[in-house]
Write a structure and sequence with these properties.
Blueprint lengths: L1 H13 L4 E12 L4 E4 L4 E3 L14 E8 L5 E7 L3
Antiparallel strand pairs: 1-2, 1-4, 2-3, 4-5
Organism: Chelativorans intermedius
Protein name: DUF1344 domain-containing protein
InterPro entries: DUF1344
Length: about 80
C-alpha cells in the first residue's frame, strides 16, 4: 500500500507545476479560435466568456494559465497593466 500512496503524493505534487504565469505584448488575436498570441510566439486560449473587445494587438498583458490535457495553455486570469 505504500507504493500507491507514494505515487498519489507524487501526482498531487506535480499538478501545480502545470499552472504558470507570463507577461508580454499581444501580437495577434484570433476571435474564431478564441486565442491570443504574444510577441514571443506563444499562443493562449481565452476563456469562452471573455469579451475580446477589451483587448487589442499591442497591449501589454500579464496572464495566469494552466496547461490542459491537450497541451493547450488555457488562460485562467488576465491583468491589463496601465
Amino acid at each position: 500500500m505504500r507504493i500507491p500512496a507514494a505515487l498519489l503524493c507524487l501526482v498531487l505534487l506535480a499538478a501545480p507545476a502545470l499552472a504558470a504565469d507570463t507577461e508580454g505584448t499581444i501580437a495577434a488575436i484570433d476571435t474564431e479560435s478564441m486565442t491570443i498570441t504574444l510577441e514571443d510566439g506563444a499562443t493562449y486560449k481565452l476563456p469562452p466568456e471573455m469579451d475580446v473587445s477589451a483587448i487589442a494587438d499591442g497591449m501589454e498583458v500579464v496572464i495566469a494559465y494552466r496547461v490542459n490535457e491537450n497541451g493547450e495553455r488555457q488562460i485562467t486570469d488576465m491583468f491589463l497593466p496601465e
